[in-house]
# Entry
Amino acid sequence: MLTQINGLHHVTSLASSARGNNAFFTGTLGLRRVKKTVNFDAPDVYHLYYGDETGTPGTVMTYFPFPDAGRGRPGAGEVGTTAFSVPKGSLDWWEQRLAGHKVEGMQKGTRFGDAVLAFEGPDGDGFALIETGDDPRTPWTEGVPEDVAIRGFHSADMRLTPRGAAASAELLRFMGYEEEGKDGGITRFRVPDGNGAEVIDITTVEARHAAQGAGSVHHIAFSVDNRAAQLEVRKALMETGFQVTPVIDRDYFWAIYFRTPGGVLFEVATNEPGFDRDEDSAHLGEALKLPTQHEHLRAALERYLEPIE
# Structure
């Protein structure tokens, strides 16, 4: 069993508009944009990162906004809901705020005894706010009061067929997660002594396979402290039979990827070097930062990419 994983590092999804995506996360949800860069494999598409003040692992939602992309089709084999942690007693405030921003799909409920407010992002993305009483993480508060602000991720909920759910549960146990309980058709796993974003839920569904598009989660990334820990994880996964990519330099972290038995793409990302490696922390996310191999395209990209605040 692995012991190197701390919880989630980031969640990466697809969108149809950079401007709308940026407005939703920085305006509606009050997160900080901590990096404005481009997709390594498609430099004419932004890669936008939102999180706390410094983009602490476990707080960072990232997006590839493909202009005018069609919406994804929900189904099995994907992360259906990305949940954020908010303080106890804050959901009434959030319900009013989201209603004022004309957010759709709002529904209150409970999950594992905690109050939950589910809602949709601009492309039908599945989100939830979950009240957590003991989350010590410091939020970004320029747009939202501290006593209600998002602390970071609470969990990611994978929608899987029964066969995929069973195999993915075994994978999570191998990755150091412990089964914490069941609530209806949801099974909860938690990595002990994690980074605050240490919960993964599995919802068992009978549904056709999802089709990715705007609003779909592309992958979820798990946090490890450094490259040495990442190499240990990679070796153990490969010895278990998973096909794992070589280590890839993503400028702000190193990454490896593999596909889970249930169909969800997992990444294991390092906490080093961080988002301040090429920008002062006071100005994160302001300038367009390009990977070295795409720097020669800067003039063309600055003309082509949709301007965002």
Notes: The mean pLDDT is 97. The CA atoms of residues 9 and 58 lie 5 Å apart. The chain is about 20% helix and 35% strand. The two ends are 45 Å apart (CA to CA).
